[in-house]
Specification:
single chain, Rossmann fold, 2 domains, four-stranded antiparallel sheet, 9 helices, globular
């Protein structure tokens, strides 16, 4: 079942059509990729989905409900979570307190906030660093902390904007394993990422954007074999890893 769906969304900035008729589906329990060259419209598409940018036309549905006119705050409450390209952490707070702030904002009656925060940190492998200041973390651990904080908001679908940026190979593998576990547990993930081998490894389905339009959609093997995608983005002979 697709928990998130966009239908023919378009965004025009003056004379520039940043996104032009983009339709995609994000099912539960799967990681869906959204890739393409810089300026292809990926972040603008994310902004439309999360409510930061109103579409010129088109619709966004969450669990079958039209949320196109809902504010970003209300969409977050409805289950749309997101991380950004630039790390957005409270550097002077501890790792635990970064997650605790999100837990408190999304508190469930009868829940122990500190226990819930610890559970999210355990989930991403940061329990041993709970008392450490966030601004002392490596980039890899900072990305994991951002993920833990997003999970504390109880998303039904999680949009990740370049989460592997700045990570080394070991950190990328660790992050990929965690994302795979989250999807296996039923979370819907929409992933924007320039690490193409990572996308091919993780994603069940991929949408490729170019100049704001959908260039191709399909499984990793279909995308890797698409000549238009090769010409516009992947490049001839590029090693993009094993397709699913």
């Amino acid at each position: 079942m697709s928990i998130l769906e966009t239908t023919e969304i378009s965004v025009r900035f003056g004379g520039h059509m940043a996104v032009d008729g983009v339709s995609l589906r994000v099912p539960e329990g799967a990681i869906t990729g959204l890739i393409g060259p810089n300026g292809a419209g990926k972040t603008t598409t994310f902004n439309v989905i999360t409510g930061l940018q109103a579409p010129t036309r088109g619709k966004v549905h969450l669990a079958g409900k039209d949320v196109t006119r809902l504010s970003a705050h209300k969409r977050a409450r409805a289950g749309v979570g997101r991380t950004f390209q630039r790390l957005e952490l409270f550097g002077s707070l501890s790792v635990r307190d970064n997650v605790l702030t999100a837990v408190e904002l999304n508190r469930v009656p009868g829940e122990d906030p500190r226990r819930a925060a610890s559970s999210h940190l355990e989930r991403v492998g940061l329990a041993d660093l709970a008392g450490v200041r966030a601004d002392t973390l490596s980039t890899g651990n900072a990305r994991l902390l951002e993920l833990a904080r997003s999970l504390a908001c109880r998303p039904r679908v999680l949009l990740l904007d370049e989460p592997a940026s700045g990570l080394d190979d070991e950190e990328t593998d660790r992050f990929a394993d965690i994302l795979g576990e989250l999807a296996a547990d039923g979370l819907a993930v929409l992933l924007v990422e320039h690490d193409v081998p990572l996308v091919m490894r993780l994603c069940h389905d991929i949408t490729v954007l170019n100049f704001g339009r959908v260039l191709a959609q399909g499984s990793p093997s279909v995308i890797q074999a698409d000549q238009q995608v090769i010409d516009a983005y992947l490049g001839q002979g590029t090693d993009v890893g094993a397709a699913r």
